[in-house]
Task: structure prediction
Amino acid sequence: MKTIAVFFGGRSAEHDVSIVTALASIIKPLELSREYQVEPVYIAKDGSWYWDQRLKDIALFRTGDIEDFIRKAPKAHILFDNGLTLVKSSQFAGRKAYKHIDVAFTAMHGTHGEDGELMGIFEMANVPYVGCGVSASAIAMDKVLSKQVAESAGIASTPWTWFTSNELSQNHSAVVKRINTMKYPLFVKPARLGSSIGITKVDSPDNLVNALEVAAHYDDKVIVEEAVPNLIEVTLPIIGNEDPEPAYLEQPLLDANDFFDFETKYMGQGKKMGGKKMSGGAKQGAQGYSKIPAEVSQKVYDEAVQMGLAVYKALGCEGIARIDMLINSKTNAVLFNEVNPLPGSLYAHNWRAKGYSAVDLVTRLIELAIARHAKVAKKQTAFATNFLKQF
Amino acid sequence: MIRGFLSLYSFNYPRIVIYMLQSTEYMVKPYLQWYWRTANFTQVARRRSLDMTRRAKLLLLVMRLGVALQIALAIVLLVHAYDARNWQLFNIGVVLLLSFPVIWAHLITVPLILARHLIAVPLERKLVKQSAALFSKHEGIKIAVLGSYGKTTVKELLLTVLGAGKDVAATPANKNVAASHARWVRTLTGKEEVLIIEYGEGAPGDIKRFADTTKPDLAVITGIAPAHLDQYKTLEAAAQDIFSIVDVVGSENTYVNRESEPLLSYVNKNQDGYDTSEAMGWKISKISVSVDKTSFVMKKGKKTLNLHSGLVGRHLVGPLAFCAAIASELGMSNKQIEKGVAETKPFEHRMQPRLLAGGWVIDDTYNGNLEGVRAGLSLLNELKAKRKIYVTPGLVDQGEQTEAIHHEVGELIADAKPDKVVLMKNSVTAFIQAGLAAKEYSGEVVIEDDPLRFYTHLDQVIAVGDVVLMQNDWTDNYN
Result:
């Protein structure tokens, strides 16, 4: 039986979302598969690591007992031993508990986890891990980098620009001037935060400065994009390594003038619908109401799927990711928006519609992680030289 | 082993004992059988917890008081023996102190035995005697429904179909023994046109006793299969008891399910009844079965019935057709019959389809016999699905034939070729696995040792396009 360590929590604004993803969408189905021993590794908001079977219990987090747990529990650390071993003090006679892990499964959203940092540790440890690699994660989490990579691959997106918070403070007027050459309304976003945190829709130059400050408060890098008129937002979950497999193109049901902010995604469960009655193929997925598959023409649907796959490949995504796209419903133009290298709750609702149960999905992701690791292991990375002898 | 021993002294022990009594419907023999095969009493209540009825509360109080009394007595004895340096008495005190769980697990059955023999049995006897007169006096047509399986289904179908044009009453739920017949007849108005009475045989002679009391005009035998073999010992004995109904209503008023193979050896070839091609002279055609409905056409002379039912499975065509044919015999119009059949819906936990996580789950967990297994697997085989999953713990009460029957269950599963088989781990699992192996089943087999966990997380295992058939369920006392 393989040992799977599931990493969740983290120093991120999406800490709590990560807990739900880990406990509900990863640990539960992994255990139900009966094929894996699951070791939960919780990264607290201060960055401390804890490894304990009790961390599988959502009640620990829901009741706030986690604070008490953190006060009493020994912190975990990791040992690189041509692989990765979890270590913690047993609190008795100086003994330590060890657990060698076979596969790492990250359930981290946002900074210090989804952005490639954690994947770097797994690469160093030479342990298979689920999801995108270091570079793909880092690029995907950086909206500026991902647009630049997509553009270089000939993938269209809405007009955009970017600046650093340093530029904003030192050269404020130049930044504003550059932005004002764009067509309003605009979206101002922190470039490297997920879950739509710090995003503002700006309808006129009057509100621009405030929006820029909000975004710069969250991130040193800020991206500004033109809004797409007659908007249909769609998203495409994809799994796979060399041969990525798309799920259904999904259409979050939002008012055309609105966007998918943190509250809509995780708190309000569709609050922006203003009490509208859902009909047709509307389903309440992990992130509110959506239509699966998206209600667009077959031509646009196919184009969006092809674009999603092209972005996945251009960024070098592996394992799992979700590609967000924007459609102008009048012109039928499909535009790349952003990549989410670890979709909340793995977008299991969409995969279920596609025929993957929650158990099938996590099992498949582990297979992909092992396959990628096996492939990389075949590559030679060390060479025998006489360099030191010449010293 | 140590944990098992310590579980006798857990604070919850009295509660667990009462739970075991409640789960075995306060029947002393199965309770004691369960008690003596239990290795760890903390592992007993896995499916549900004690339902605090008045009876349960009273028994729990008696047990707790008894335990407290015995412990107090033991302590007094120990102190006294120690003071007197009487080690023989001290040892008796120790035995008294340690034995309270076992002693009270048995003593608690005494009030039940006394209540049953001194109050319940005489009362029931009197009630049954009185009911015979009430049944005799009632002018409605009385239909007895009996058999090793399928009787509750046929009774409910008759009630629904005949109810579309007649004033009909039927024995409630699975209240199918003499005492419940007796209580039920007292609730009738006397104006009902049809009475449907289910006979739940459990031991030799039961059917004759029921028939002598309820005096049926017609009888339908829904099937013969190995059931209650702990009492009947052989299928032959069970069949003999069931067919004793013919002595009461006559062969011409007895209808049989001709699809029950073991039944056919007890009737002649021309015995009236039903199957998927014919029912009481009506020809059946154009059968179509999907995951949520069954449709077919019946023809007799110039009469045609187009029937659509919410029930699922080809095996239900015969019983539905029989109900329609009886309805026609009783003078109901085609329209009334079609309406009656259209109103038939799956009963709870009997081939009941429901959507879960985008997949279809067919809940047949109240099924408990080989014929039901056969019917369910035949349905699974017939349905179109991206992936088929079959879930079962096996069958209970199969007596000496347990191994052979479960070997056959395994073979039947293999023949139906589901993609995945989930077996709830218990004493018959190995027999089913042997049956699967004998037919070289090549799909995935999962042995699940925590059924409750599996059932509650079923949504994690299935996806759109899946069909899951769940047959039978073992309550805690069978584990």
Observations:
- The first strand of chain B starts at residue 141 and ends at 146.
- The mean pLDDT of chain B is 91.
- DSSP finds 20 helices and 16 strands in chain B.
- Residues 2-107 of chain B form one domain.
